[in-house]
Design a protein that fits this description.
Chain lengths: ~525, ~100
Amino acid sequence: MKSLEEVLETWEAVIGLEIHSELTTLNTKMFCGCKLEFGAAPNTHTCPVCLGLPGALPVPNKAAIESIVLAGLATNCDIEKHSMFYRKNYMYPDMAKNFQTTQGPIAFCMRGHLDLDVDGPAAKERYRLDSLEPGESSGNIVRTEDGYRAHVGITRIHMEEDAGKMVHIGGGEGRIAGAKESLVDYNRAGTPLIELVTEPDLRTPEEARLFMQKLRQIYLAIGISDCSMEEGSLRCDGNVSLRRRGSAQFGTKTELKNMNSFKNLHDGLAYEICRQAQVLEEGGVIYQETRHWDPSAKRTIVMRVKETADDYRLFPEPDLAPYDLSDEFIERVRAKLPELPDQKAARYSASFGLSAYDARHLVDHRATADFFDECMALVAAEKDGSKFAKPLANLIINDVTSYLNAHPEVALTDTPLTASRAVGLVRLQSDGAISSKQSKQVFAAIMEEDKDPDIIVEEKGMKQVSDAGAIEAVVDEVLAANPEKVAQFRDGKTGLMGFFVGQCMKAMRGQGNPKVINDLLSQKLS
Amino acid sequence: MTEHVSQADVRAIAEYARIGLTAEEVVSMTADLNAIIDSLAPITEYDLEGVPPTFHPIGDLSNVMREDKVRGSFTQEVALSNAPKQEDGSFLIPSILGEGGDR
Ligand SMILES: [Zn+2]
């Protein structure tokens, strides 16, 4: 099979996402007062409504409606005042009432968008990005200094409910194939769920991954869900089709499921794009089918093909009154909007002079943004406190992020790195007490030994000597001990500078400030 | 009587509703459903252009919501009390092929 890069030379991938999020931060279910709790004993949070018993009447959870309106406002959607719930009918045991309550043609949130900033090596997945100059635009993207910005439309976000959980027994690994019986737990049935549908505006797996990541940051910031892809409170399906470069017509799309991590989302889409290209190039046909990404086998496999098309017979739910949201309701929700990641990044650039790149990557994760805020608060009272912003950003984006990537099970708040230690560390370097190389060692020691940076520097005898008097004595000694080399240097062998610096460093056991040494050597050798 | 609904339609509707009908029942049900639809014919005599559909027979009711407060749930025993079979606190059902809805 060809590589993604090769495929994207001839084919354009058209990707749309459907993202489901459970509103896990609420207390109760969507239409009944049963408690929301992940991992409770089976069937301990059910009632006539969520078990679909005859005559039970649903009543919507106000906090869930507020949450979806908040999600819509945070993703630039229009809030539809008039909408209603519909029944989506299907017979399957995961929903005891034989229909899912969802929304019809009009959802609470319509016509939104998010802007994605793509940089780094993955920006190259975008076809011929190099042919654009910064500031130039093409289609839905604008070229930026270090990549591009893509405008991704959001079709709608609608309110619905989750189904119960089924465990198939008798088959292999809980899969339906070969199963004889199934166990059903209705604790999750009726969990408030919002589904966001994007326009088919995404063109690369990286854009899809970034969209998902950005949406997750927003949902976490507004506090509507714990967004755990592992526990299934954030789930993503993708639609992919290919078309020849230059063609305006859409190809046949496949739907991809089981992309329950950012990596799986990227890799699943990348595989499916390459698979479709191969089929098409061999003269084959793409069938509209649902495929399942198998991360261990690294391929997508077709799920059971249904003989008949789904007919959900969507009709207005007669048991639920329509909505006619007031301006007051919407404004009350708007007042709850916190600072969103994009706004935070803009503030970092405006208040601390950080580059767009640094600011953006600080807000990639809520934990790192919160940590940066905490650090900056510690130096806020200092006259030139904002000079720490750039070194703190470097520390967080590079050292802290690679530490967290290497220890995925550890949260930043659970590491030995406190805000005051981070500030202490960058302060030591900005005072010239330690070199940038030593700073990395001190960082590693903080994480390893759980001690303050000053103490580590003291204990390890790392303190960099910047005192010109002490360094001058060493420089003089070194020059006196190497009269021939001094003569050669003065004859034009300037490459010997490195030798002199090395000798001074050696004499000072690596603790001399290289800049001071260099300056003194240049001065004395001129 | 006009045929609005065919026997094939009736069989499909019965299938959706998981109702088993005999061949005779399909015949009589088809006649009944067509008669019911015929009885609605007078409505077509009115000019309903621009009249919004009435989805709810509940007047001006809108925005019915409850506070997000936990109310009592069934105990596991009560929840499972009508289940023909159960195991480990769950409903035990015959395996059904398919993947359910598209959530
Ligand atoms: Zn319930």
